[in-house]
């Protein structure tokens, strides 16, 4: 867009190629020709930018300075804009790489967290003996409660084995029943 004729001032909007998820970075450059252009560098500035960080803007300004100095004596606007275009494409690639690294880092952290979840206490003789003592105490407590409940309910029933041990007539009762 031409802004004025004397001195010649115009803007050019430079957009990167679409990255992942159609993300782009964009900047609008304003150029003003000096009287002795191209033997003298044009005045340039970034008047707007989109999705760029401050350090990216600084890098673009440095790139413009370097390219302008290298191209003194030649028409250079196309070269400057091309250099900025390449830089914007690099920035999009860096954003993509940064996101991939973040994703990989999150996956690594999730994997480590998963490992930690399945990694229990290492078993040593001391740990086992402590656990065994607690476990035996819990079993003994459960047996005591069960016996108290049976006593309170009045259910002092004997098991089959106990019945046979007490009354030896039961040893032959099945045989007598079958004979009859």
Biggest sheet, open or closed, and with what strands and sense? 4 strands, antiparallel
Residue share in helix: 55-70%
Strand content: 5-15%
Oligomer state equals single chain
Query: What is the CATH domain class of the domain at 9-102?
Result: Alpha Beta
- The CATH architecture term of the domain at 9-102 is Roll
- Here the CATH topology of the domain at 9-102 equals Ubiquitin Conjugating Enzyme
Report the mean per-residue pLDDT as an integer.
85
> Largest beta sheet: what is the strand line-up?
1-2-3-4
**CATH homologous superfamily of the domain at 9-102, by name?**
Ubiquitin Conjugating Enzyme
Question: In a few lines, what is going on in this structure?
Answer:
The protein has five helices and four strands, in the order ββββααααα. With 180 residues, the protein is an alpha+beta fold.
Give an overview of the whole structure.
The protein has 180 residues and is α+β, with helices and mostly antiparallel strands. It has a domain at 9-102: Ubiquitin Conjugating Enzyme. It is built from five helices and four strands. It has a four-stranded antiparallel sheet with strand order 1-2-3-4. Helix 1 (54-70) runs antiparallel to helix 2 (77-118). The mean pLDDT is 85. Keywords: Acetylation, Phosphoprotein. Belongs to the RWDD1/GIR2 family. Pfam families: DFRP_C (PF16543), RWD (PF05773). InterPro entries: GIR2-like (IPR040213), RWD_dom (IPR006575), UBQ-conjugating_enzyme/RWD (IPR016135), ZC3H15/TMA46_C (IPR032378).
Topology:
Elements lengths: L1 E3 L4 E7 L10 E7 L10 E8 L3 H17 L6 H42 L6 H29 L6 H7 L3 H10 L1
Antiparallel strand pairs: 1-2, 2-3, 3-4
Pfam families: DFRP_C, RWD
InterPro entries: GIR2-like (IPR040213), RWD_dom (IPR006575), UBQ-conjugating_enzyme/RWD (IPR016135), ZC3H15/TMA46_C (IPR032378)
Family: Belongs to the RWDD1/GIR2 family.
